[in-house]
What we know:
Layout: E1 6-10, H1 17-30, E2 35-39, H2 45-55, H3 64-88, E3 92-96, H4 99-109, H5 114-125, E4 132-137, H6 140-148, H7 161-177, E5 182-186, H8 191-207
Parallel strand pairs: 1-3, 1-4, 2-3, 4-5
The structure holds ligand Z5A.
Ligand Z5A binds next to helix 1, helix 4, helix 6 and helix 8.
Amino acid sequence: MSRGKFITLEGGEGVGKTTNLVFIKDYLEHHKISVVVTREPGGTALAEKIRLLLLDAHSETITEQAELLLVFAARSQHIKHVIEPALAQGKWVLCDRFTDATYAYQGGGRNMRISTIESLENLVQGALRPDLTLLLDAPVEVGMHRAKKRGSFDRFEAETINFFEHVRRAYLLQAELYPERIKLIRANQPLSDVQNEIVDAMRFLVRNL
Ligand code: Z5A
């Protein structure tokens, strides 16, 4: 049995990752592909507990180092218990955020050293990297406006517009560094146009089945 493909969805808050996850799952299943949908931080019982710690807006101040280590602790559990077993069984894994989010939020947003993130990435992931990353990109105000409709803010959503500008810039830098893997999707358009771009970006993976 051939190994499954690993697809990640990235972008700032409110750009439409969760909305399009469902669309992508349906698209892949239409092509008879068995899909596991998951998310980060999270995806296992322990990793979901870590997610709650990370998002809790009322916790004691979390240091930048603690935040980075919690993100990778959750990722380690997720890879071992969900991602690797699914890929080994030939399933495709569709993940709402992965390590590009760490480069964007902890690297760009928190200004942590990229070399530190790279070391943890190599330690926790070994050779595992996504086969395809769809980076949904929109001006920060657009995403914030969409996300605001939800009401209460978690610890990240309470950050400033300046923080999210740095996050966006770091994501775009990742896309420049890895143009083969990361496909930029213009998320500031009607949903049907966003989804046409997503299908175009995924076509080569599906065609090569
Ligand atoms: N984090 C981190 O710091 N480091 C890491 O390594 C990882 C994560 C992995 C949790 O992420 C936080 O973890 C995240 C970074 C941090 N914090 N932030 N911010 P999350 O993915 O759970 O949180 P999120 O980014 O806030 O997700 P979100 O706000 O749910 O955004 P979304 O999933 O991209 O958007 P959506 O829910 O699909 O859409 C938002 C609204 O827009 C909704 O009403 C849609 O109907 C609407 N929408 C979507 N697309 C369109 C279009 N095209 N037109 C009009 N309206 C649209």
